[in-house]
Amino acid sequence: MNNGTVGTFYNRSVSLVEFQRNARLLRLASQLGMRDLVQPLTAGAQTENDYYDKFSWNLMVLRHEADELALKRLERVRDVRVAVQLLQVERQALGRRHQ
Predict the structure, then answer these.
(1) 3-state DSSP assignment of residue 44
(2) Which among 1, 27, 29, 90 could disulfide-bond with 5, CB atoms 3.0 to 4.6 Å apart, if both were Cys?
(3) What DSSP line would sit under 47-96, residue for residue?
(4) What pLDDT is recorded for position 68?
(5) 19, 6 in Cβ contact below 8 A?
(6) Residue 2 phi, psi (nearest 5)
(7) Which residues neighbour 40 within 8 Å (Cβ) at sequence distance 6 or greater?
(8) What is the pTM (predicted TM-score) of this model?
């Protein structure tokens, strides 16, 4: 890739700086003994470079999916709120009719 870009991920460029930041996070997580985070994100790595590469890409996938799930959850919460508001309006209208 060029211009400090190491690849493309979900239609956006990934910079070398972002990739290096993820590598630092891997070192920190390893030093803190966070094996439950590190092992699944580095599964199948054969070399040290593979280790950093897999962790960085998989961490980006994990973050992307977490963001997507949060958005979907927010949409569901919004839909429920709208439904509750509609029910309240209907209940008020029925109450007025029966007075």
Answers:
(1) coil
(2) 1
(3) SHHHHHHHHHHHHHHHHHHHHHHHHHHHHHHHHHHHHHHHHHHHHHHHHH
(4) 84
(5) yes
(6) -130, 175
(7) 58
(8) 0.69
